[in-house]
């Protein structure tokens, strides 16, 4: 299967024409299971049949999905990718089954909200009591995930509402974004940090610090990288990297480590004084957080969630920004 991979349109045509649900179930099982036989039993086919299905997949896509070795199979990068996508498709179908069952029994369909961590902390947590009260009696799942996975769930029908940062319009056709929370990137430290008493600092003043900072292909990581480049330095990574607000006080307690993170995540800790903000003279803006949904979405429970988030969004946004100005 060496050689040039077929183009994306060709691969798409082959996948639509030749792939079956049994192929997707096998892909998802193979990544979890240690052996082909174990995966075959999970899917409900014989081992020879599973082996034939895997050969069909690799022949159709002209790429090796799993490496054979003495202990079983190991997924290649392509295998991991296809297994992930298979889980997304199967998850969407499970949601569809739940929704159809709810309709058949004249119940309201389950509401699934996919949200990035900043939205969970900055939008959902402060108004969870209102949401619980307004959505009483409904089955609701708030699923926290990375931005790309949140988008996949929304586009694949596994979520009716996504709480994300404002997306690029070219990547969200047919979707509506409603801004709910302004945000910026803040630098936080232990209250005992030498810079904590200063009214303001330049980012360049922090060039020698050790940093816990956003990672990966996300807007917060890109914003911090641009700000450091403008300030003329490359940030030094601390030994421990973590964006969890629960660990932030301990992470910075050594007096050396600084953390760059969204105000939406750090806001509650700042208000309680568990960490302090080192006031940057130049604000590092982030795309706003809001609700993303399909233009044709008409579910009453989605409208109810949006109403709660709108009512509280302005107060929350002003409180966070005021905290940054004080």
TrEMBL record:
<dbReference type="InterPro" id="IPR000847">
    <property type="entry name" value="LysR_HTH_N"/>
</dbReference>
<dbReference type="Pfam" id="PF00126">
    <property type="entry name" value="HTH_1"/>
</dbReference>
<dbReference type="InterPro" id="IPR036388">
    <property type="entry name" value="WH-like_DNA-bd_sf"/>
</dbReference>
<dbReference type="GO" id="GO:0003700">
    <property type="term" value="F:DNA-binding transcription factor activity"/>
</dbReference>
<comment type="similarity">
    <text>Belongs to the LysR transcriptional regulatory family.</text>
</comment>
<dbReference type="InterPro" id="IPR036390">
    <property type="entry name" value="WH_DNA-bd_sf"/>
</dbReference>
<protein>
    <submittedName>
        <fullName>LysR family transcriptional regulator</fullName>
    </submittedName>
</protein>
<dbReference type="Pfam" id="PF03466">
    <property type="entry name" value="LysR_substrate"/>
</dbReference>
<keyword id="KW-0805">Transcription regulation</keyword>
<keyword id="KW-0238">DNA-binding</keyword>
<dbReference type="GO" id="GO:0032993">
    <property type="term" value="C:protein-DNA complex"/>
</dbReference>
<dbReference type="InterPro" id="IPR005119">
    <property type="entry name" value="LysR_subst-bd"/>
</dbReference>
<dbReference type="GO" id="GO:0003677">
    <property type="term" value="F:DNA binding"/>
</dbReference>
<feature type="domain" description="HTH lysR-type">
    <location>
        <begin position="19"/>
        <end position="76"/>
    </location>
</feature>
<keyword id="KW-0804">Transcription</keyword>
